[in-house]
Amino acid sequence: xxxAKYTKEEALQKLAQLDExxxxxxxxxxxxxxxxxxxxxxxxxxxxxxxxxxxK
Length: 56
Prior knowledge:
Blueprint: H1 8-16, H2 20-30, H3 33-40, H4 42-51
Helix pairs in contact: 3-4
Protein name: Transposase
Organism: Capnocytophaga haemolytica
């Protein structure tokens, strides 16, 4: 498993900066185990980032 880019505290600070609608939508998909798997699995996360064209 690769090293996390952010610590848990740093990630929570980033999330706290999001507007309410965006944060609510992230919370909504976090209830879905299949959606969560894209964030917990390195390969699926790389595919998701590629699909969204997010650069490292």
